[in-house]
Design a protein that fits this description.
single chain; mainly beta; four-stranded antiparallel beta sheet; 44% strand
Length: 469
Amino acid sequence: MPPFSQSAPISNGFSLSQNTQKVSNNIITIDVGGQLFQTTKQTITIGGSNTLLSNLFNSYEPNTIPFIDRDPELFSILLSLLRTGNLPSKAKLFDIQDIIFEARFYGISDLLVETQSNPSQFEPFGLEKSKLLPLSGRDTPSAIAATPNGSLHVSHGSKITSFDWSLQRKSTTLTSFAAIDSLLALSHNVVAAGATDFSGLQILDLDLGFVTQTLKWENATKSSSTVQAVGMSPDLLFTSFESGRRNSNTIMVYDVNSFKVVSEIARNEIFGADLDSAIPSTKLSWVSSLNLLMASGSHSSHSGVSGNIKFWDIRSGNAVWEIKETVDCFSDIVVSDTLSAVFKIGVNSGEVSYIDLRNFGSCDSWNCVGDTRKVNNGKKVKEGFGCKIVTHGNQVFCGKQGKLELWSEVLMGSPNDVKDRIFRKNVLGRVKDLGGKRITNMGFGGNKMFVTRKDEQCVEVWQSSVRRL
């Protein structure tokens, strides 16, 4: 028997007066696996016009009940999803993959993803370590790339392993890299991958398992070029290249859909001991509020760590603002449109500082949100070496060795007051979640945070306990 057919007339099982039927013509009855369900036409069409349920009554004859040969218990869960926009508590008794499979059958899997892995459900103060995603082989994660719906791509050694939004392993793709240093999700199944010891940026379709395109750059001597960083805006893909001889570097701008070259900026040909030109950009971040690209890089020498941060106008190809880092240079750096600020962790002090972008171009002094004494004591002990900093929404997350910190702004006075911004620190996780090996990557997708650590062949998943299925 097909999973969906028409059953006997409704009069065989029910006795309704003609007036009642007229009043209740919006109420429908469906037989799923021998169990009757009553709902409304509006409810079953919430998932969209092309779903099985929306089209169920296209050939419906009066006084008959459509029959669907599926599990009634799973259907009741999905019916609750259509009615309330949330899964009922009894859904925890079922394997999430069974629910996903049924949602696909009924054509409402997009609604399920929206309700279970929606970025609006992210609750930073309630985050707890909820799951470990094991990786095959002996290699530890070198880079991660999450998508807005919560799916995840992880590079480990020469492989990229993909997990869907429900954290089910989808695939593992073998690449030509020995190790991947840069990984960027362009869509749910396409990534850009590059390495500091391998020529070219590869565009990979992970569903098909092969490279669709390789983007390369050559300098005047036609030497090969390696990838130092990747970033993107809604329309553009940015790639920082350095020549194999390390005597030149640049940032190439591509169309994110066609991968055709749009422009080239920040090209440096290095002559002699020109240290500033010798520093390639190792982090690229698009600042949508300013319509500028932030490119940063640092260099370590016997005299300490120095670096620069430049904001580039893609249209003109000019740097409109530069911040030189000589005292307590950044170990890691990030820009936040939501908070209108650039944040860094000082490589010497290990403290978090910021520059307010509402003073763009007029002030390049850092404001410490932690212990200013560590920043000002002049000691080069490198407490911030290897530390990571990222932002998500209006929160700042720091990985300090094995500890996760959350910095939140306390709003005081006028929102336009740039003089006195106050941030407070919270330590994430329960007591049993605290500590561990040094954090190497942090990422966000859907309502989840992903964390990797040194020498561990897995990815930690952090979620709010009230949102976990």
